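thought: fold this chain, then report.
action: predict
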Amino acid sequence: MKLKPFLPIFTLCLLSSLSNAQDSPLSASAGLGPGNSFTLFIEFQKPMKVQNIDCAFDLQGAPKSGQEDFGRQVRCAGAPTKDDDTHYRVKVEIPQVIAAGDYKIGWITVSVDNVGHQYQGTGLPTLAPVTVTNPKHQEFSPIEKLEIKK
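observation:
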């Protein structure tokens, strides 16, 4: 066969591309907007019997013009899914009325035996911000006059 000499090269290229794909996870924020969701994967150092996980991603910086009154936080939704004793995942939903921008994980609260513990700041591993796009904006007309009559 003429392909036999190329088989080792093809195999190495395939393994190399698969290896690189594992090292660089896909961006969770590719194309996220109002009504979309993504999955947050959480790995603990030691096994825990987690009852609930709540989390919040906060907008970094000021909202864009026309979005000042839009939501500025993205939250976990629903019960966590247990993959094994140290790996859990939770769905994060993007609200319909949300300011566009980068959202950074602010906190994660984990409940075990009806006791909640909040991880925040240096208690959280580094996580790239999630970018939310939203072309909508809302302008409110100034109130021109108020009056009271008897």
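thought: worth noting. The longest strand covers residues 101-112.
final: tokens above.
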